[in-house]
Specification:
Elements (H helix, E strand, L loop, with lengths): L1 H19 L17 H5 L27 E18 L15 E4 L5 E11 L4 E14 L35 E17 L4 E17 L2 H5 L15 E17 L2 E8 L3 E2 L10 H4 L6 E11 L2 E10 L5 H4 L23 E13 L2 E10 L20 E11 L2 E19 L2 E22 L1
Antiparallel strand pairs: 1-2, 1-3, 1-16, 3-4, 4-5, 5-6, 6-7, 7-8, 7-9, 8-10, 10-11, 11-12, 12-13, 13-14, 14-15, 15-16
């Protein structure tokens, strides 16, 4: 009875915490985090073939099959340091260009705290169900409203109309965007073939929030189909739905493979930003798929490797190149987006059982940068250019309790290219990341 009361209380607290704290700022593999769960994060994000906690459905839903009842909660401190730098003087107004103020500008918001929670209930030795509440994000910047003497002014017939203002990167005051995504992942998983094969399935419910400010000048210049819903500064939200399926199998003693597929998550439109995102504010979440392998090379050492693909090309608002502005306005069908490419990700991790309840982990995550040199300008707002991620972590067990820790460092990465609205200028976007995560688990 006592365990049942504790279990119900923890689940209630977990759901309330996650729903009330959906804000995230991850920007590692595009705007997907490098891993889900403190243990996986310490190993570079691997988890296709090896699952160790209730966060497993975030990577492979098959991972909870037969898992004993447990609760996992964690808090992440995430620090992305983002900036952009413009070189070259802008073209004088009147040529239909929009130059940026030369110099370097840092995004002001840098410190984020991100909760995650998950729960698994064992049905029997072969079956379990659970729910995980996990976040993504990354299109998050906050550039100050600095005095900008290079803002365009009126130039007469055929020229630029007066700008909204004379401060900030785009002459409309402080500028930035904020994307927050929460995935609610209920999961059922079961073992077959005498426990050698596991299959899991998850319907996915997503909740997204988005806001943007400081972009009104694009509307003044006739670049938006719906300038009233281009840069309101308001927070708009949508719900979406999708599904995922996963498989894990034991090839031989100590050798495991895993595979998973997550569908595109279809979400409602951001009506407040129908003049920014292509197709009238449409903003779904891309599908992903992956494969993994894990091997116990000794009784105390496990090595794992994963491959993952994120298909950003499915989402026009994210993948359409900014050059589409030559044929269509912001918000229109086929309008410009952030120009992100699909991303291939390779993850490597090692785990060492140190005895006395200690487990040690290290990992490496290599994800492709989704942003090409031709699309840097709009990605001033979302400089998700990271490639290399180095991780480490540990677990300390205390009876039914676990203390988990993971750290990640992603060294500075930058991309340079021409200003899409004034080719006389060069724009460089840059990011560096630090992450610390502490987790607690209770095994019932």
């Amino acid at each position: 009875m006592e365990a049942r009361i504790i279990r119900r209380s923890l689940v209630t607290i977990a759901v309330g915490l996650a729903m009330g704290s959906a804000g995230v700022a991850h920007a590692t593999n595009g705007y997907f985090t490098h891993g889900y769960g403190t243990k996986a994060k310490g190993m570079g994000g691997v988890g296709m073939a090896i699952s160790q906690d209730a966060y497993a459905p975030g990577i492979n839903p098959a991972g909870i099959a037969g898992m004993e009842t447990r609760f996992d909660g964690s808090l992440t401190y995430f620090r992305p340091e983002r900036s952009y730098e413009v070189s070259g003087m802008p073209t004088p107004p009147g040529a239909g260009t929009f130059g940026l103020a030369p110099g370097k500008v840092d995004s002001e918001s840098e410190d984020f705290f991100i909760p995650s929670v998950a729960f698994v209930q064992q049905i029997d030795e072969d079956r379990s169900w659970g729910v995980a509440l996990l976040g993504n994000g990354g299109m998050n910047t906050d550039y100050p409203a600095f005095d900008n003497q290079f803002c365009p002014g009126p130039t007469g017939a055929g020229g630029l109309t007066p700008p909204t203002g004379t401060t900030g990167p785009f002459c409309d005051g402080a500028a930035g965007v904020n994307l927050e995504q929460l995935a609610i992942i209920p999961t059922y998983a079961q073992k077959f073939a005498d426990g050698r094969v596991s299959v899991g399935f998850s319907p996915i419910i997503s909740y997204q929030r988005f806001s943007a400010e400081g972009l009104g000048t694009f509307g003044d210049m006739g670049m938006s189909e719906d300038p009233e819903n281009l840069s309101s500064g308001k927070t708009d939200s949508t719900w979406g739905y999708g599904a995922q399926i996963g498989l894990q199998a034991e090839l031989a003693e100590g050798a495991r493979i895993g595979a998973t597929y997550r569908s595109k998550i279809r979400a409602g439109d951001f009506d407040e930003y129908a003049g920014l995102f292509a197709n009238g504010g449409d903003f779904d979440i891309p599908s992903t798929y992956g494969l993994g392998f894990s091997l116990d090379v000794s009784p105390n050492v496990t090595l794992s490797a994963d491959y993952q693909m994120i298909r950003y090309s499915e989402i026009d608002a994210v993948s359409n190149p900014v050059s589409n502005i030559q044929q269509a306005q912001f918000g229109a069908d086929g309008g410009p987006g952030f120009g992100w490419d699909d991303v291939n990700i390779f993850k490597l991790g090692a785990q060492i059982d140190g005895g006395n309840g200690w487990t040690w982990r290290v990992g490496y995550n290599r994800g492709e940068n989704p942003i090409s040199s031709q699309n840097v300008t709009l990605n001033i707002l979302a400089p998700a250019v990271m490639e290399d991620h180095f991780t480490a972590g540990f677990t300390k067990e205390f009876g039914q309790h676990e203390l988990n820790f993971a750290a990640m460092y992603a060294p500075s990465q930058s991309v340079s290219g021409p200003n899409a609205f004034d080719p006389a200028q060069e724009v460089e976007i840059e990011m560096e990341q630090y992450e610390l995560e502490i987790g607690y688990a209770y095994n019932f």
